[in-house]
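Worked problem 6 (solution included).
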Amino acid sequence: MHKVLFLLIISLSLPAHKLFSQQLNLPLNRDIYQEYDASLNKLDVNFHTSFKPYNMSDIDKAINTDSADICYVPQKRVAGDSWGKRKLLYEHFISIDSADYQIHLDPVFDFEGGIDDAASKSTHVNTKGIIFEGNIEKNFSFHADYYETQAVFPAYLTQYVNNPANTIVPGQGRVKILNQGGFDYAIASGYVSYKASKYFNFQLGTDKNFIGEGYRSLFLSDNAFNYPYLKITTNLWKFQYTNLYCSMEDIGRINYPTSQPSEGSGQYFTRKYATIHYLSWNVSKRVNIGAFETIIFSDTINNNSFRIDYLNPIIFYRPVEFSIGSPNNALIGGAFNFKFNDNIKFYSQVIIDEFEIKEVRNYSKGWFGNKQGIQAGIKWNDLFGVSKLRFQTEWNWVRPYTYSHETALQSYSHYGQALADPLGANFYESISFFSYRTGRFFFEFKFNYAAFGTDSGGTDFGQNIFESYIPPSQTHTYFNYTTQGLFNTLTYKDFRVSYLINPAYNVNIELGVSLRSLVNNITSNTTILTFGIKTSLTNHYYDF
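Solution. The predicted structure is:
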C-alpha cells in the first residue's frame, strides 16, 4: 500500500513531456477535430480525413503539432508554475511517464444547469466519470472511460426518451427512471490499439466511428450508442483502407420500462452484425475519393452467429451476397472531396441502398425501391482572412425507405438509433456553422433547417427506418417522394460561448442558448438556456 501511495505522489510531480500519443485515437469531438482539420486539410498534407477517430501517430507523421496553432496540443511545463496551476490549466491529473510506457488518469464530468421555457422547468446534467489510457513502448496503446449520469432534459428530449419506441438517451444508451422526470444512465467505452507495421494498425474495442467530412454522415456516424468492433486500418502510399467488423443490437423486443429479462425468456436483445469497408484515395493534393460498402446481417436461424463469409477483407460484397443467396441489407456509397486551397474544402457523399437501372431511368415515377441519399458541403477556415474564423455548411437529402429493409431487424441501425443521420430517411436538411476561436475562448452559431415526412394514418411513408420498407399496398409502389406523409419542418438555432480551461482532457466552461421549432399539424417552440463546466470528449446530437 505504501509503495502505491509513493508511486502516486511521484507521478503527480513528474515533469510533463509532450504526450506520447503512439497509437491512441484523437477523441471524437467536433470542436477538437475542426482545430486539427485546419492543419490536416492543407494542400501539401497527405492525410486521410474521412475515417474518424484519427490515430494520433498518423497525425504526428502528417504535421508538426509543436509548430501548428492547435490549442489542444499538450503544453510543455512552464518553469515556476505550481502543481495546482499545472493540473488545472494544462496537464493530465495523473501522469506516469517512463522510457517504456506512459499512463494518464483524468476525471471526466459534466455539470450543467438550464431552463426550458416551453415546459417552465429547470434542467440539469450531472455526469461523473474517469478516463484511463496509456502507451506501452511504441506500438501498443489502450484507452478506457466510464461515465455515469443523472439528468433532467428539456421537454422534447424527455418525450423522446419516454417514447416506448426509443427508451434511450440519444447516443448514450438505456435509462432508469428517476423522480420528477429525470433519468439515470451510464456509458463505458474502451479499446486497445496495436501497430503491427508501418502499414497496419489493429484496434479492438467498444466505441463509435464516423465516416465523412461533414457534421452528418450518410455512411456511418457517431449518432448511435457504442458497439463492439474490430478495426483494421491499412495505409499504403496515397491509399487508406479500413475494415470495420461490428456487433450491433436491436432493442425493439424489449418492453419499456421493464428490466432486462433473462436470456431464457426469449426476450433478450437481438444481436446483428455489420461489416464495413471504406477505401480512401488521395488522387492528388486537391482531390480525394472514397468508396464505401456495408452489410447488415443477422443469422437468426443459427442463434445469431457471425457469418464467416463476411470476414472477407476485400471490397466488394455483392458477389458474396449473390453466391449465398443472402437476404441481408447491403449499402454502397461514394465520396468526392476537393480542396480549392489551403482553407476551402468541398465534400460530398452518395449512398445507395437499392438500385435498379430500369427504375432509375424512370426516376420521376418515384419507385419505393429507389433508396438513395446525397450530401454536399463546404468547410472554410480563416474566413475572409481572419485567423480561426470558420464557416461550414452542408445539405443532406435522403429518399423514403433508405436504410430500412424487408426484415426490420436488419435496418441500418443500432440500439434504437440510425447509424447514419438522426432523422432516418425521407428528409432534406441544411446545417450551417459560424465559429471563431481566439486563445482559449470559442464562439459558435449553428443553424439547422430540416423538412421530413412521418407516418400518417397507419401508413409507413419511409421515414422510420425500423419499419419494413415493403409498402402496405400496391398503391404505394410508385409516386413516393421525399417528405411524403405528414409534413414536418424543424428549425434549430444554437449559440454557445466557451472557455477552454484544460486542453489535456478538454475541460470547458460553457454558456449556451438553443431555440427549437417543430411544425406539423401543431407548432412546438422551445427555448433552452444552459450553463456548465464539463469535459467534452464526445459528440451529443440533440438537434432533431
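Discussion: The chain is about 10% helix and 45% strand.
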